[in-house]
């Protein structure tokens, strides 16, 4: 009997324990889950204010001297040593001798031709005194002024038909022009600097034999340079001579002021571009230097300019509405390497100023107008 009572008590205790444990399990299922805090990303924004946006075209090119002379020899002779060495980097002033060739042999033939002309005129003087007394004084004065060591003076003006036949028949005129031709060629044995500049290329050295038609070097004016750039044909009617241009070096450390000096009147049929020539002056510039030009092409009204990374492939941009990101359609008007000009963006619209990684429409954000101060937050 006692055994039955003990078993009954244990059974009842087991049932009570099971009931309590079951209630505990039920209560644990309804325990509230921990609240995950909502992450709100801070973004840099800007308020749209449409205005006039100048379109700046970027183009690259090398500098070349505006005044450049390729030196060629028209005669043959030995290159004589001058007061300055004929070497690259050597400076010469205007009129100074660049190259002088040995012309002693040719000079002798010129002097011989002058002597023959003088003798021919002297031989007709007795006949002029007898038959052409009225023209004799001017021919006598010509002989008196004739100096074989100087440039041959111009023949006296022939006034009459008889005088013309007489002078021409004696071969005076042909002898005179033969002498002038020889004198002109004699000047080619000396090449003078056409302007003040610097020698950039020297292909010959002193003492060598120079042949006719041989290239000797290059001579440039280092004070004025030009840069040739190719621009899209769509700007052919916009670009004008006299436009100011900013030229920057490759490392972006120096800026030079240039001006559009010429615009080609034809369009390249292959590339559909137009060639623009930019003139620039500065003491730091050198031949062949590579620069980037920024040309002011046109002005777009009622537009804004933003970073190209902010424009989506669907031609939309992100805006901030009530702390949520949204997208609106836009109309790109001009693309540059880093920015894009947009139209049809309403004034007062709050847009992103910098790209946000992982952005999507409906994303919770807090916009600030400055990356330093957060006092201007847009909630």
Automatic annotation (TrEMBL):
It holds the Pfam family BSH_RND. Gene3D superfamilies: 2.40.30.170, 2.40.50.100, Helix hairpin bin. Residues 68-216 form the Multidrug resistance protein MdtA-like barrel-sandwich hybrid domain. GO terms for molecular function: efflux transmembrane transporter activity. One of its GO terms (cellular component) is efflux pump complex. It comes from the Bacteria. This is HlyD family efflux transporter periplasmic adaptor subunit. It comes from Winogradskyella endarachnes. The lineage of its organism: Bacteria, Pseudomonadati, Bacteroidota, Flavobacteriia, Flavobacteriales.
């Amino acid at each position: 009997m006692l055994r039955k009572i003990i078993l009954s008590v244990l059974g009842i205790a087991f049932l009570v324990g099971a009931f309590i444990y079951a209630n505990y399990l039920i209560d644990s299922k309804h325990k509230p889950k921990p609240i995950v805090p909502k992450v709100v990303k801070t973004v840099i924004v800007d308020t749209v204010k449409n205005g006039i946006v100048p379109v700046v075209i970027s183009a690259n090119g090398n500098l070349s001297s505006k005044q450049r002379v390729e030196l060629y020899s028209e005669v043959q002779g030995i290159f004589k040593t001058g007061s300055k060495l004929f070497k690259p980097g050597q400076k010469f002033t205007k009129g100074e001798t660049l190259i002088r060739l040995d012309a002693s042999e040719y000079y002798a033939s010129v002097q011989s031709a002058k002597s023959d002309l003088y003798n021919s005129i002297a031989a007709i003087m007795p006949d002029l005194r007898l038959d052409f007394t009225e023209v004799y004084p001017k021919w006598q004065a010509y002989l008196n002024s004739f100096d074989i060591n100087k440039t041959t003076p111009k023949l006296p003006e022939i006034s009459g038909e008889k005088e013309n036949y007489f002078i021409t028949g004696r071969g005076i005129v042909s002898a005179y022009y033969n002498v002038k031709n020889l004198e002109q060629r004699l000047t080619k044995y000396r090449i003078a600097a056409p302007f003040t500049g610097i020698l950039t290329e020297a292909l010959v050295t002193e003492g060598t034999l120079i042949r006719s038609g041989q290239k000797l070097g290059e001579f440039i004016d280092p004070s004025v340079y030009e840069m040739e750039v190719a621009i899209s044909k769509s700007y052919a009617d916009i670009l004008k001579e006299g436009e100011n241009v900013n030229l920057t070096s490759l490392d972006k450390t120096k800026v030079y002021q240039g001006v559009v000096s010429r615009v080609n009147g034809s369009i390249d049929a292959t590339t559909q571009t137009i060639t623009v020539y930019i003139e620039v002056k500065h003491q730091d510039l050198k031949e062949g230097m590579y620069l980037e030009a920024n040309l002011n092409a046109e002005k777009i009204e009622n537009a804004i300019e933003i970073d190209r990374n902010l424009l989506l492939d669907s031609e939309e941009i992100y805006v901030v509405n009530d702390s949520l990101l949204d997208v609106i359609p836009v109309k790109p008007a001009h693309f540059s390497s880093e920015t894009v000009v947009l139209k049809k963006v309403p004034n007062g619209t709050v847009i992103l100023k910098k790209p946000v990684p992982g952005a999507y429409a409906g994303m919770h954000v807090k916009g600030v107008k400055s990356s330093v101060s957060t006092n201007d937050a847009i909630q």
